[in-house]
Task: structure prediction
Amino acid sequence: MTENNMAFLDEIAWTQEGLIPAIAQDAETGKVLMMAWMNREALAETATSQYAVYWSRSRKAIWRKGESSGHRQKVIELRLDCDADVIVMRIEQEGGIACHTGRESCFYRTFQDGQWSVADPVLKDPKEIYS
Amino acid sequence: MTENNMAFLDEIAWTQEGLIPAIAQDAETGKVLMMAWMNREALAETATSQYAVYWSRSRKAIWRKGESSGHRQKVIELRLDCDADVIVMRIEQEGGIACHTGRESCFYRTFQDGQWSVADPVLKDPKEIYS
Result:
């Protein structure tokens, strides 16, 4: 995409830090897998590459999801909300694991009897994923 | 719930402003309907009332979703992510409309041919909803 085609980035209501939250949802099952943040560069690259690219707030760097784990997220559909300040991506999760804990989804804790309880299994040892 | 039972709130990694993003997802269809923010009070009330309560950042006030529109969100399941800084709620959307534009979902724009395009219909005129 050329700079001329980047007008869609100007429609985003970026935070003061220049970010927007991006929700990744499994395109097939509808399961919400994770939420992370994108900056302008990350969203531009996501749109052009069709693979999810985030901005890591902790590492302060572009985060090409799956670069070290192999668990890339192929983007099937990108959606923007009414306030233009949240994105939903329907994705295909390579390896079936989105979470750094080795689980399918980062949302593996449910609220049960007044507490957060782990409800979903680890599918692969993180030591194996990141070795 | 008594104060003793509010320990689950202390596990949240609140932002500097004391907030956490909360994603509302239709429990039946899996459609992501909206994302808004909760503070401690909003999450406590959501957990006890079983209806979604947010913190309105623009109005700086507790926002009992559906109070003016009637479009309340009955909470079926609450989930927390690995970093304890995002919540997903599986909900039943009363009236079938989550968005203030009168649409089912706030994510009614898709990225098509390099632009954000409106893809979902208005189900009810907002003037009727908020009259």
